[in-house]
Write a structure and sequence with these properties.
single chain; about 450 residues; alpha/beta; Aspartate Aminotransferase, domain 1; Aspartate Aminotransferase, domain 2; five-stranded mixed β-sheet; three-stranded antiparallel β-sheet; about 15% strand
Length: about 450
């Protein structure tokens, strides 16, 4: 397989921010003080920060100019109407409201629809979606295709939902126990893998036939649309914007963290077509976020989002964006470091379970790799494995572990260069050389929900 070249950036760098690599002994001290949880560490102690691509990208000169146009009126600001025009143009839903970020939209949607004991199916819920459903005593269900559990399988759309599983699920639990159905684009928990248009149409049809409202978790919708353009026959000559509009024409609504594909530091969206539901959403939003025309955001944030929604659809940018992740994955693979194949959109997912086969899932091999990567080179990634997703089933009181133990290296947008990615690869190669000496971890503290954010560990 030909190694992909590093793509030339379709922009010039206008502002820089200094970073520094602190000494090894200082990194060790910082790890211990944070209880070996990289979420609890200081950003200033990071040399390269790949914890998340959410809200950490570089805004463009046009977005910075938009900040200056921000109208901070409490209600009906010009900034809201500029964002409204962009949202209607890109997504096409009848109603929308801004929120301060994606999990706020999820919280409001769950508050309006989910009752105790009800189920919400998806391909794979990510952490905050899963937690917001559970916080309402609902039950999230992941029905992704089986190929998603095979890191080596090169299925072009490993984010697809298994239609047979979805039909069987609805037959088992009944329409009355399923207040809404979802799908995540791209599938973050499964390696940033895309969902095909064919699959979106099939999912929409099943939900529609059963009278179940269909919502798309849309954090990386532009990346998903670009994958469809690249990989799905019949879409190669359509624009990414046209593909996005077709995607959302299939759904009843969406939630979105705008901190990803709208390339802003803060913000989210909730959209829908149903009039009654939207009235209930506005009531919840006023309680939790703010007036419906600002949704917990400053006017300047609304204006930056309006610009970013279009910039995130730019095909030169998306070609570069996906090319960066493909380049880093190829550097790792050529050195025998396994990653989820094919490479997804926003990050590279390293198969920590394969690097540390001697560490069982209940001793958190992906967390161990995250710690070692910081220890080796001051690089912060995020565990996507048993720390984040293992859960105790209330019905049989047994622990269920995810199929894969992954370290996600999420690449912030328009932020790092080729030499940064080469450095990341070199550090992982060094860890692989001493992999058999690395030990696992155990909790010293863990909350019930979203434990990966605040848990503390100690090495075994």
């Amino acid at each position: 397989m030909t190694k992909p070249p590093y793509p030339p950036e379709p922009f010039r760098i206008k502002v820089t921010e200094a970073i520094r690599l602190i000494p090894p002994e200082a990194r060790e001290t910082a790890l211990k003080e944070a209880g070996y949880n990289l979420f609890l560490m200081k950003a200033e102690d990071m040399f390269i920060d790949l914890l998340t691509d959410s809200g950490t990208g570089a805004m463009s000169s046009e977005q910075w100019a938009a900040l200056m146009r921000g109208d901070e009126s409490y209600a009906g600001a010009r900034s809201f109407h500029r964002l409204k025009n962009a949202v209607e143009d890109v997504f096409g839903f009848k109603h929308f409201a801004p929120t301060h970020q994606g999990r706020a939209a999820e919280n409001i949607l769950a508050a309006c629809l989910v009752k105790p004991g009800q189920w919400v199916p998806s391909n794979m819920h990510f952490d905050t979606t899963d937690a917001n459903i559970r916080a309402r005593q609902g039950r999230p269900a992941n029905l992704v295709i089986d190929e998603a559990s095979d890191p080596e399988n090169r299925h072009p759309f490993k984010g697809n939902m298994d239609i047979a599983k979805l039909k069987a699920f609805i037959a088992k639990y009944g329409r009355e126990q399923i207040p809404l159905g979802m799908i995540t684009v791209t599938n973050n928990a499964g390696g940033g893998q895309p969902v095909s248009m064919e699959n979106l149409k099939a999912v929409a049809q099943v939900y529609r036939e059963n009278g179940i409202p269909f919502f798309i978790d849309s954090a990386r919708y532009a990346e998903n649309a670009y994958f469809i353009k690249q990989r799905e026959p019949g879409y190669e000559n359509k624009s990414v914007k046209e593909i996005a509009r077709e995607m959302y024409s299939l759904a009843d609504g969406m939630t979105m963290s705008a901190k990803k594909d709208a390339i802003v530091n803060i913000g989210g969206l909730i959209c829908m077509n149903d009039d009654t539901l939207f009235q209930n959403v506005k009531n919840e939003l006023i309680l939790r976020e703010g007036f419906p025309t600002y949704g917990g955001l400053a006017g300047r944030d609304l204006d930056a989002m309006a610009v970013g929604l279009y910039e995130g659809l730019d095909e030169d940018y998306l070609r570069y964006r996906l090319g960066q992740t493909a380049y880093l994955a190829s550097r790792l693979n050529e050195n025998g470091i396994p990653t989820i194949q094919p490479t997804g959109g926003h990050g590279v997912y390293v198969n920590a379970g394969a690097i540390f086969p001697h560490i069982p899932n209940y001793e958190f091999p992906a967390q161990a790799l995250a710690v070692e990567l910081y220890r080796e080179g001051g690089i912060r990634g995020v565990e996507i494995g048993s720390v984040m997703f293992a859960c105790l089933d209330p019905e049989d009181n047994t622990w269920h572990y995810p199929a894969l133990e992954l370290l996600r290296l999420a690449i912030p947008r328009r932020t790092y260069t080729q030499s940064h990615l080469d450095y990341v690869a070199d550090c992982l190669v060094a860890i692989k050389a001493r992999a058999d000496k690395v030990k696992g971890y155990r909790f010293t503290y863990a909350p019930e929900l979203l434990r990966h954010f605040t848990a503390r560990f100690e090495p075994l």
